Amino acid sequence: MTPSLWTRLSNPSHFMRWSGALVPWLTALSLAVLAVGLYQTFYVVPPDYQQGETVRIMYIHVPAAWLGVFFYGAMSVSAIGTLVWRHPLADVAQRAAAPIGAAFTLICLVTGSLWGKPMWGTYWVWDARLTSMLVLFLIYCGIIALWRTLEDPNRAARAVAILTLVGAVNLPIIKFSVNWWSTLHQPASILRMGGSTIDPSMLYPLLVMIAAATLGGTTLHLYTMRTEIMRRRVRTLTIREAERLDRTQPRITPQPSGGLPVGQPV
Amino acid sequence: MDLGSHGGFILAAYAFTVLVMAALVGNAIRDRRTQVRTLKGFGEDRR
């Protein structure tokens, strides 16, 4: 039976081959889309009728928020792959995604805070959307810390996969927090029933920035996954080398001293 | 271009994003170099 395309692509050695060829092209594409997005953000997008120029913060805040949630969603899928199929690449994908997702969530929180001060008059409020995003960032930090705490990679993978799936309950809370509770944060304005409420002159550049961030984030994820596979190879080789050295060392067996009986004074 | 009276907030937001992304990418590159160097020490050349 020939293996399926998915099985072949997800095999670590096949993954190293195809991702190695893809990463340089994806990097170039991400930078090109980012250049177009930034040009539109600063030279094409008009100032908002209410927010003025501060609306330009939206072009990094929204893509960062999207990627913070996107990478956690991807980690949750990988966690299922780790627990159900024990696929080595699922754990690699999860481990590589955590710092990237945490970085984008942090960018979302800080840029949102810098946007909030001139618009709301405060850097922070304990509103449901802001708090649930902060909880997401703390979960990311917890996952990264747990990985560093457990030395055995197999035990760490299972523990982190369970923690990731428990934390996934936060994703729908983030998405629907603005509908379920009365929040200072604005309600959904891109993905909503009845279409987007943003004017096309602002929406299309925003979609370009979201595409650039997604491409860039995915490229970085593939790159760090390759590094993670190398790290595991290094670990295997180090253990083999230690075992080889252990075998070649002459064994020193303790000689019976034939000295004093136990419990007697010297 | 004129970013208005709130230009400082806009610039700070973009500067922070550049800083975090530079740290993330820089750390990824440094980590890759370390692993490649160690693998070379074992006689493997994988990129």
Please provide a written account of the structure.
The complex is a heterodimer of chains A (266) and B (47). The radius of gyration of chain A is 25 Å and the shape is elongated. In chain A, helix 3 (58-85) crosses helix 5 (128-149) and helix 5 runs antiparallel to helix 6 (153-167). The longest helix of chain A has 49 residues, at 200-248. The mean pLDDT of chain A is 88. Chain A is built from 8 helices and no strands. Chain A has one domain (13-242). By secondary structure, chain A is mostly helical. By secondary structure, chain B is mostly helical. Chain B has one domain (7-47). Helices cover 74% and strands 0% of the residues of chain B. Chain B contains 1 helix and no strands. Chain B is rod-shaped and about 60 Å long. The N and C termini of chain B lie far apart (43 Å). In chain B, 9% of the residues are buried. The mean pLDDT of chain B is 89.
